[in-house]
Amino acid sequence: TQSILLKERPKKTPQTSNFEFKEEEVKSPKENEVLLKTIYVSVDPYLRGRMRDEESYIEPFQIGKPITSAIIAKVEKSECENLKEGDYVLGHLAWKEYQIAKGENLQKVDSNQAKLSAYLGILGMTGLTAYFGLTDIGQPKEGETVLVSGAAGSVGSAVGQIAKIYGCKTIGIAGSDEKIKLIKEKFNYDEGINYKTTENMKEAISKAASNGVDVYFDNVGGKILDATLQNINRNGRVINCGAISQYNKEETVTGPRVEGILIKKSVKMQGFTVRNDYKENFAEGTKQLAKWLQEGKLKYEETVREGFENIPQAFIDLFSGENKGKMVVKVADE
Ligand code: NDP
Description:
Quinone Oxidoreductase, Chain A, domain 1, Rossmann fold, 10 helices, 25% helix, binds NADPH dihydro-nicotinamide-adenine-dinucleotide phosphate, Enoyl reductase (ER) domain-containing protein, ADH-like_C, MDR_fam, ER
């Protein structure tokens, strides 16, 4: 069976040559273990951070060791009481076609309740990130204006719809006209800004947000954050969810670079990691997201790549915005 290892730490934008494929033998599960067949692999921007040799909220990947991420797998053989052959599970697993895992680290998922891949997106980490980041940190109120960057991505597409459920005006920023059409038509965004074709982001945001920005859900950082802060309202909230525009940079930017704005306008800016700050609330969050899905209030999009060998490229393509909604790789048939 194949496994994907980190060959070397990427410099700037990751390349397929940073990864290495290795052939391994498939073992048999011991007591409390299962043999898993990988079905869907989640590729996520935060994995880029783990490829740096830096202390963070999660330990760095080691050279010569497999990359890990959220994976949906099928139980092939079980030595676990609560898991049987044919069950589907979600786990934080290695990029391997087959692997042995401890049953206690796996969560059973129901393929009748939702598409299996949805447990990597809207009913998984990115849906929960959107939900807790917006509602708990953003505290959106009816009639307020919520601006979201990375709006056509997995987190951002959910944020806009949840803000709409809360009665807000929503403005999304994304990197192509096709994505702007998608976020308005499918994800209920009132306004959209293509940051790649817009020269003056400060003015464009000011025009779209005629009453200013009350809540900014930031997935990208950098210049878009600067331009937003120049449009932020008094008592505004900035949710520092991610900063993908900075992940491939070798130098750390310091900020906030729009000097004095947070002070003058009493703005609150808060970061979080969903796994550390909201782990206790995951069940409640998933229940709410599933309810909205069922009621048709929440929609999602996926970009599904096929084939184990294409996992590294799918990950790399996140940084050029090749995905709409959640990027997943389908490795084997269900
Ligand atoms: P997405 O599905 O949003 O994919 C990434 C998107 O980022 C791309 O599609 C691309 O869209 C956009 N992008 C890439 N480079 C740039 C750039 N230089 N400037 C602006 N936009 C860029 O990924 P996720 O939904 O999984 O993650 C979104 C953000 O949320 C990331 O920053 C991630 O790190 C963060 N995150 C944080 C969590 C937390 O707990 N705090 C948990 C999960 C995610 P486009 O075409 O519009 O450029």
